[in-house]
Amino acid sequence: MNKKIGVLSSKMIFCLLAVYIIWGSTYLGMKIATKVVPPFLLSSMRFLVAGGILLLVGCLREKTWPNRQQFISACFIGVLLIGVGNTTVAVAVHYMPSGIVALIVAAMPAWIMGMDWAFFSKQRPSVMTMLGIVVGFIGLFLLFNPFAHHEARQFPLWPVIVIVVGNICWAVGTLLVQRLPMPTQITSTAIQMLAGGIFSLLMSFVLEPGGLGTLPLMTAEAWQAYLYLVLIGSLVGYTSYSWLSKNAPPRLTSTYAYINPIVALFLGWAIGNEAITSLVGIAAAIVICGVVLMTLGRKS
């Protein structure tokens, strides 16, 4: 019995580290790849390949196939989490520094708790959680204040709205995944990836005419980033998150939200040559403090 618990704890630690580090690094990976390939097309290429590989693994290991209701549920969650949630991040990093995008996504716990309170559990957040939400959004306002003059800003603000839409969809998908009938773990994750990939491909045809013509222009750097996103970011990172969402306490799982931006900011500065100004540093510290307060105040 103790051995089983030890194995479970080891797997939980591995999955947490994977989500902490790998997801933090995918922001820069998407930034590099979208220099050549448009965001929706990149997301479709990434998750269609990763989902196909994982579906094969699921069929061999789990040897089960979902019923109609489970299949539809997994597809719906996949569109919310990947088709919209993840792809909007790819859109944003194409126009904005990857570390700053990670800071906006760090506010995810606020959306999850707010949506849960309004539409699902109806459980009022604790005072500490509410304080964390206020502190987090103060940090984001300091960073993106549209009323201030930021002469050094080299990026537009409209992708912030895109990320917010993606965050809301991700929050809804996260809250629904434990409330809908879902397939077995690996098969469910694979179907989610494939559904999100198909949705992204359809959106690419609509919003990115000529996107397929960029594939022959892929550089060695872009291919390396793409392969990293598929093999590490999707197969290891997303699968780890999917496992945690089913098996780990929500408060523990949500801690990725304040680790990812630290990793993304560091990699964006060290590898992507993204500047970290004093304003960005102060705003980042405030946002991360807010997320920590949200997590500590969360009622598991």
TrEMBL record:
Annotated family: Belongs to the EamA transporter family.
Residue stretches making up the EamA domain: 11-144, 158-295
Protein name in UniProt: Permease of the drug/metabolite transporter (DMT) superfamily
Main location: membrane
Membrane topology: Multi-pass membrane protein
InterPro entries, sorted: AA-Vitamin_Transporters, EamA_dom, EmrE-like
Subcellular location: Membrane
PANTHER family for this protein: EAMA DOMAIN-CONTAINING PROTEIN, INNER MEMBRANE TRANSPORTER
Keyword Nucleotide-binding tagged: no
Organism encoding this protein: Chitinophaga ginsengisegetis
Keyword field: Membrane, Transmembrane, Transmembrane helix
Stretches that traverse the bilayer: 12-30, 36-59, 71-93, 99-120, 127-144, 156-177, 189-206, 226-244, 256-272, 278-297
Keyword Glycoprotein (UniProt): no
GO CC annotation terms, alphabetical: membrane
